[in-house]
C-alpha cells in the first residue's frame, strides 16, 4: 500500500546552539482511518505494521496511532467487544486472537522488528470498574453478587505505549469521555486502573524522557496534565520546580462535525480552530512536547450542504500535529486524509522554555501554598 508521507526530520539551525544528535527527537504520527473490522481485521494490525515500517525507514523514535484505531469508532464496534468477551468460560474460551495480551504481544513483535516505539492508539476493553468505598468490607464469597457482575461488564478506552524492545512501558485509560461516548463507555479511575501518570522512555540516541498520555477530550481539561506533575525528590531544594512530562502523546478521534449543528452554524471550521489552539496551549502551559494524532476521515461530500451537517456525519478534520513551547507547531496535517506526519525537535528547547516561562516553578509555589493551608487547619 502507498503511504502518504508529510514532513521530514530535518532540524533547522538555531543561533548559538550546536547540533547534537543525543537531543534529537523524531516523532511520526499516523493519521489513519479506524479499523471497523477489529484488531485482526483488515486495516488493523496489518496497517499498523505497514505504517510502523515506513516510520522506521525514516528512523523515527516513536509512531503514534489515533484513538479507536484498533477497535473501531462506532457504538456497534464497542458493543461487539462486549459480545466477544462476555459469557466466556473455560468451556468456551475466548479466541486467542481477541485476547488483549495476544495482540499487545504482536504489536511488541512489530516494535522489535522495526526498532521503533509504538503508541498503539486506543482499544476498547471489557473490565471491572468497581470503585471500593472506604467503609466497604471485602467480599469473601466465592460467588460474585449481581452488582460485581455488572461492574465487570463495563467498557473502557485504553492506550498502551510499547517500546522498541517489545515491552509495555505505559498505559492509560481515558478518564474524560466525550458526551456521546458515555452511553456505552465508562471513564477510567485511578483506583481501578492503577498506572503511573508518567513513565520513562528512551530515544534511539539514548536520551531518557518522562512521557505521559492523554486521550481526545482529555485535552479540554488542564487537570489532565496537572495529574502528570509531582513533587521533586526530598533531597532537592524546597524551591525546586515540580517534575512533569517531557512529552505527552494524545491519540484522538475528533471530527469536524463534533461541534454539532449549534456549533457548525457559527463556524464550520470550529473544531479545526479548537484543536489548533488547544494542542499548542497544552504544550506551552506544561512546558512539554505534545504529539496529537487524530483519526482520518472523509471530506464533506461536494453535493452536501455544509449547513446541513450534524454530529452523525463523520467528516474528517485532520489537524494531527506536534507542538512545543517556543517552536509552536512544527508539523500539522491540514486535511482528513490518511497521512504519516514526520516532525523532529531538539529537546533542549524544553529546558530553555522552563527557564523562561517557569511554569513548573510557579506550580510548585502554588502547591506549597495550598499544602500550608491544609497543614494549618
TrEMBL record:
GO terms for molecular function: hydrolase activity, acting on carbon-nitrogen (but not peptide) bonds, in linear amides. Residues 127-150 are annotated as: Disordered. Residues 138-147 have a biased composition (Acidic residues). Pfam families: CN_hydrolase. It comes from the Eukaryota. Residues 25-347 form the CN hydrolase domain. The keyword Transmembrane helix does not apply. Keywords: Hydrolase. CDD domains: nitrilase. This is Carbon-nitrogen hydrolase.
